[in-house]
Fold this protein.
Amino acid sequence: MKHWIEAARLRTLPLSVSGIIVGSIYALSNPTETINTPTEVFSWKIFGFALLTTLGLQVLSNFANDYGDGVKGTDNADRVGPQRAIQSGAITPQAMKKAIIITSLLTLLSAIILIYFAFGQDNFGYSIFFLLLGIAAIVSAIRYTVGNSAYGYRGFGDLFVFIFFGLVSTLGVNFLYSKEVDPLLILPAVAIGLLSVGVLNLNNMRDEESDRKSGKNTIVVQIGGAKAKIYHFSIIITAMLLVVIFAILSDYNFDQYLFLLAYIPLTKHLITVYKNQNPKLLDPELKKVALSTFLLSILLTICMISLISDIIVNLFLGGR
């Protein structure tokens, strides 16, 4: 059990649910024109199964990454980060492959239940669209490192993370509640996507040397470490600016800028990366950015809600 928990890489899970939290609380704090109260828009069932589906997708991605890099020999003695399950021999490739299949089926089942709670027997077109989206997410999580044409080996991992853990996570879950796309929510959705890409980019910066030797052509391998730093600064700073713009356009009061507290560890992180001369020392920064993103999502959702105590009371007394 210990080895399976390690293979699931629990430190990545808070980051994966950041978009779900922001998209859900945005729906709670912004009733639509056709739905007038927060308790009509928000559903604990949707929230719970959205979290469960996203966590399943993240664990699936971690299992598949362990399997793909393990059988390809990418995880070897040159790898800097924590030793993985297949690399160490703690879990066999056959057992990991079975775990990938089981996790895929459970994640798909969770997605189907989520879609049913969101749309019921109505909106058949929406149901089919989100079902196909869920299948695409599952396939993409596996194909990141698995197979001869794994897109993570061709530098497309950043795009996958940005789309599914940023845009789809935030905008998608909000649509499940509201049945509409709010253009303003695109700003934090892009921000969370960029911060998620930042975590992956750190991972790739750390593993640049071993990835280059094994033929894993990540963006870092393609552009080199120096340009990867510039790329990293640009995505983190852009994400921070987008959330501020979101707050301004949302007419936040002074006390609603509490989310800026999350910028303190992010700024310290950027200083650390700027001074870094040894990519091997970047490993602790992955956890810092992941937790900072999660903290940002929590603080931002608190800032979204005015009269939060009244809304919580309404949810527990009259919510679904």
